Amino acid sequence: MRWEPFERLGERLRVTETSCCGEYEWVCQGGQYLVLRHGELGYEEAGRGTYRQARDLWDELVHRHDHCATTS
Fold it and tell me: How far apart are CA 72 and CA 50, in angstroms?
């Protein structure tokens, strides 16, 4: 998985889901979807693209994430 610095595109950012511990956020911005996390230098993003691309990444992260796996 590749995390990159988050690029705000001027569109309103809509967070629609947050992982159980708050580490990851499922976001829509200007018709694109992505996953955010807070890194050492600010927010980082992964999976920017269509709903399906980003949702597959989100599902994988939540499934693998220790905190979320124990509370699901």
Answer: 26
Q: Provide the 8-state DSSP code for 28.
A: E
> What average pLDDT does the segment 6-32 reach?
89
Beta strands in the chain (DSSP E): 4-5, 13-18, 24-29, 32-39, 42-49
Residues in the chain: 72
Q: pLDDT tens digits for 27-56?
A: 999 889 999 999 888 999 999 999 999 999
List of residues 6+ apart from 60 with CB closer than 8 A: none
Q: Kindly state the helix (H) or strand (E) to which residue 23 belongs, with its residue range.
A: none
